[in-house]
Amino acid sequence: MRVAGAAKLVVAVAVFLLTFYVISQVFEIKMDASLGNLFARSALDSTARSTKPPRYKCGISKACPEKHFAFKMASGAANVVGPKICLEDNVLMSGVKNNVGRGINVALVNGKTGEVLDTKYFDMWGGDVAPFIEFLKTIQDGTVVLMATYDDGATKLNDEARRLIAELGSTSITTLGFRDNWVFCGGKGIKTKSPFEQHIKNNKDTNKYEGWPEVVEMEGCIPQKQD
């Protein structure tokens, strides 16, 4: 009887040890698999982060060099969505900021520091061109001037207003017409014509909207004024 009892004990211990061994092996395999999955996910996350395209100021397509201001702007869309002007990741004018309106929208910026000096819009359909002319005459040398049309920016423009804008570096201002879309970046005291200008004519055969051309957009890097 004692021998039989001892044999049963030995068998029970052996079964227990075998069971423990099997469980430990299965657990170890699962742990290895879990750790493997964890490292794989970490590697994938790291790869995704490294391949994510960088974001540049104002959402422009490439970084600006040193001593340049990044800008991006868009004209209005018909008479529904207002224009938008962004400089150095700072939205200067937009419908969201509620500081845009029908006509020509203007932002003035210090050419050395990038500081916003003023933002205004002038109604060139139902307004008077005289306040716009006086405003243009007060712009100081070294000021960066950004302009964008909304709805109609040309009906009330006269030769004097066009001349003053041309002196800021604009080429298209002489032909800007009723409901044309136009964006421009120039400066007071500029010696050449600005490379930053886009203009789409109002043409019933090519207009994207009924009575208005498509939105015109522009981005670039403005050289910082040096002493």
TrEMBL record:
Keywords: Disulfide bond, Lectin, Secreted, Signal
Lineage: Eukaryota, Metazoa, Chordata, Craniata, Vertebrata
Family statement: Belongs to the FAM3 family.
Record-annotated ILEI/PANDER domain positions: 102-189
PANTHER family linked to this entry: UNCHARACTERIZED FAM3
Cell location: Secreted
Keyword Calcium appears in the UniProt entry: no
InterPro entries: FAM3, ILEI/PANDER_dom, ILEI_FAM3C
GO cellular component terms listed in the entry, alphabetical order: extracellular region; Golgi apparatus
One Gene Ontology biological process: inflammatory response
Protein name: FAM3 metabolism regulating signaling molecule C
Organism: Cricetulus griseus
UniProt key word Disulfide bond: yes
